[in-house]
């Protein structure tokens, strides 16, 4: 199975919740991408269907938008 | 570890994504509650901090609101 990818932008409010989710799925099964720092990954995230962060893209290609941290447009800004 | 609880209201759009998440966490680690059918669980969900469904309440008590299906108020409707 390919990994899930967790896109985030360092939203401090969500850190605890994010770690919880990653622990549930298993650290080894998730690639974590901070699009605020790795801005080159923003296009990749958008192509995957990510509209806001934090979001989890599952191996099946489903996008789960979790809570609401920031829109992709805001991260670009 | 206690189980996570996944609250939903049968949102058809989200079914595939929900199943994905549940598969990632592991079916045995998640209790699934359909608050549209089990309306007696609505108060329990609200007490846990659930504002909208689908949502996952983790064993640590964090609430992850996933995408946006319906507000709790709408389910009460």
Shape call of chain A: globular
Series of H and E elements of chain A = EHEHEEH
- Strand content of chain A is 25-35%
The largest β sheet of chain A comes out as:
4 strands, mixed
Helix content of chain A: 25-40%
Mean pLDDT of chain A: 87
How many domain regions of chain A?
1
User: CATH top level of chain A?
Assistant: Alpha Beta
Which fold does the CATH topology of chain A refer to? Answer: Glutaredoxin
Q: What is the overall number of helices of chain A?
A: 3
Q: Any idea what the radius of gyration of chain A is?
A: 11 Å
What structural class should be given to the helix and strand makeup of chain A? Answer: alpha+beta
Quick one: how many beta strands of chain A? 4
Largest interface by residue count? A-B, 19 and 19 residues
Q: Termini distance of chain A?
A: 34 Å
Low-confidence stretches of chain A: none
Counting copies of identical and different chains, the oligomeric state is: homodimer
CATH architecture of chain A: 3-Layer(aba) Sandwich
Lateral strand order in the biggest sheet of chain A: 2-1-3-4
The CATH homologous superfamily of chain A: Glutaredoxin
């Amino acid at each position: 199975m390919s990994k899930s990818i967790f896109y985030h932008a360092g939203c401090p409010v969500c850190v605890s919740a994010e770690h919880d989710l990653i622990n549930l799925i298993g650290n080894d099964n998730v690639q974590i991408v901070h699009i605020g720092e790795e801005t080159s990954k923003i296009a990749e995230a958008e192509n995957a269907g990510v509209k806001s962060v934090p979001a989890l893209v599952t191996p099946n290609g489903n996008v789960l938008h979790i809570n609401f941290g920031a829109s992709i447009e805001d991260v670009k800004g």
